[in-house]
Write a structure and sequence with these properties.
This protein has about 240 residues and is of the alpha+beta class. It has 2 domains: about 10-85, Glutaredoxin; about 95-230, Glutathione S-transferase Yfyf (Class Pi), Chain A, domain 2 (Up-down Bundle). The protein has 10 helices and 4 strands; from the N terminus they run E-H-E-H-E-E-H-H-H-H-H-H-H-H. The chain has a 4-stranded mixed sheet with strand order 2-1-3-4, with helices on one face. Helix 1 (about 15-30) packs parallel to helix 3 (about 70-85) and helix 1 (about 15-30) runs antiparallel to helix 6. The longest helix has 30 residues, at about 95-125. The N and C termini lie far apart (about 55 Å). This is Glutathione S-transferase.
Length: about 240
């Protein structure tokens, strides 16, 4: 069998922070790819055909011919390793800047993603109102934004002097902080400037429409607001957190 790349890319994704990450790379590199929208509310991602692509049963996943890649960070690295020959959005493997970029990418994968994901769950999707759960994960998410702020208050990009997959991965989550968690991004002025810089990129605007859900950004924000109100309405109904854990 020949080695990758195979120039036969299919992205399995949904309109979520992790789902956005590969589209950001694909659009910046102007690659040709098919999109298979996955309805995570219907549990498409738990079906056998999908588990054969991603045994973890989550989006996103990527196929390049018969080769599969899962975990959003691995997908981003696959795409830059294989298709970013000029190193526009990554650094040369083995250099100091490569490991700096990798550090910020892993910071997102192991920190902001899981912590903010839990904060979103408690704030907008939980079957109970848990003040403890909301506070625990919101505080940790804000602490992690503070770590980004230390870097972005004095630099335009997370690693070195260019926009890389590390910025793309962190951006995908940080942009969701205000609508989901009412985080006031002005408390993190360097992060706020960096978000604006990223949002101006035409490739970012295209990626945000992948997959095409037929819903505008305003409609999505309204849905999130409704979800938060549902959780709030559980306060004091006996569906708030148990007194003993
Ligand atoms: N570490 C994984 C996380 C993937 C993940 O949590 N995806 C969510 C959407 S953002 C998902 O598929 N949720 C549906 C489920 O858990 O079944 C990655 O970065 O790819």
């Amino acid at each position: 069998m020949s080695s990758p790349p195979y120039n036969a890319l299919t992205l399995y994704t949904a309109g979520t922070p992790n789902g956005l990450k590969p589209a950001l790379v694909l659009e910046e590199l102007d690659l040709k790819y098919d999109v298979k929208p996955i309805n995570i509310m219907n549990n498409d991602q738990k079906q056998d055909w999908f588990l054969a692509i991603n045994p973890n049963g989550r989006i996103p996943a990527l196929k390049d011919g018969d080769l599969r890649v899962f975990e959003s960070g691995a997908i981003m690295l696959y795409l830059t390793d294989m298709y970013d020959r000029d190193k526009k959005f990554t650094y040369e493997y083995g250099t100091a800047l490569y490991y700096e970029m990798m550090s910020w990418l892993m910071f997102q994968m192991g920190g902001i993603g899981p912590m903010q994901g839990q904060a979103n769950h408690f704030r907008a999707f939980a079957p109970v109102y848990s003040a403890y759960g909301i506070k625990r994960y919101l505080d940790e998410t804000k602490r992690l934004y503070g770590v980004l702020e230390i870097r972005l208050s004095k630099a335009d990009w997370l690693a070195g002097d260019k926009y890389t997959v590390a910025d793309m991965a962190n951006y995908s989550w940080v942009r969701a902080g205000p609508p989901f968690l009412d985080i006031d991004i002005a408390e993190f002025p360097g992060v706020e400037r960096w978000l604006k810089r990223i949002e101006e990129r035409p490739a970012v605007q295209r990626a945000r429409k992948v997959p095409d859900t037929g819903r505008s950004e305003e409609e999505m924000i309204k849905m999130v607001q409704g979800a938060k109100e549902r959780v709030d309405s559980l306060k004091g109904t006996g569906k708030d957190e148990p007194s003993k854990i």
